[in-house]
Amino acid sequence: MPTYTALTTLTGQTSAEALADALDDLDPAPMGVGTFEVEDGSGTWEVGGYFEEAPDVIGLALLAEVHGARPFAISEVPETDWVAHVKRELTPVVAGRFFVYGSHDADKVPEKAEPLLIEAAMAFGTGHHGTTQGCLRALDRLAEAGAPHRSVVDIGCGTAVLAMGAARVWPGTMLASDIDPVAVDVARVNVAANDLEGRVRCIVATGLDHPDLAAAAPFDLVFANILKGPLIDLAPGMTAAMAPGGHAILSGILNEQAEEVIEVYQRCGNSLVHREVIGDWTTLTLQKIV
């Protein structure tokens, strides 16, 4: 059974949210409505609806006119076996010593690699995205430098691939946290699949706001592969939670946003150790000044 999308853009958060509310009143009603800001500094927002039946074209045109939006682009989404598609598209990724793979590629794990299994059905955070790959490469550089990082936390962990990578190279129990309970459930499944139960502990938390995180601080290493805005908001608290000489590996940063993030973290008492660009994304390694 086909589904349909209807997407448009307009200026301003208030207008976007009003249009999203109005979409819910269409007949047939969408099964889901989403809004997000286009991160190009223009103030543009995208509004989209997802429909199980062909949407009311005239109704959408009227809503776009009333709310000052561009005409809706309506598309039929073909039926797809997404797990099979992911298995075809997500080939193994090498990031330093780490080999990130799905179970369908278990026979391809090199002998000397540190394997990280992420199932295809749980593909967010597989290492294919430049941000995750950059974080794994940064982790590999720290491990190569030799100093153990015994207290590690992965903020916004997704699949927990970064916390699992740390557990592959250092002793101790790594913490992995996410604001989304579903993501934490996925992380726990991946931890079990990698035989890392007891080595990686997954918790639901908003940023660093959790008693278990407070009790585990100060951290030798903090991962935060999220977005520029939350990274900037977290800068003072994250720096305070780091041990003197501890590291932070930050990503989810568009290349043009990197200087702003660096400046904020430097003002909080960190120095830039390494900066890597992969495609449109920058990964930063910083160190807390002793």
Radius of gyration: 21 Å
How many runs of DSSP E, i.e. beta strands? 14
Summing up helix and strand content along with how strands pair, one would put the structural category as: alpha/beta
Order of helices and strands: EHEEHEHEEEHEHEHEHEHEHEE
Give the number of helices.
Answer: 9
Helix proportion range: 25-40%
What proportion of the residues form beta strands (DSSP E)? 25-35%
Give a short account of the largest sheet.
Answer: 7 strands, mixed
Q: Tell me, rounded to a whole number, the average pLDDT.
A: 87
Provide structural commentary.
This protein is α/β, with parallel strands linked by helices and 290 residues long. It is 34% helix and 31% strand. Strand 11, helix 8 and strand 12 form a beta-alpha-beta unit. The longest helix has 16 residues, at 130-145. The chain is globular and about 65 Å long. 39% of the residues are buried. The model is unreliable at 120-124 (pLDDT under 50).
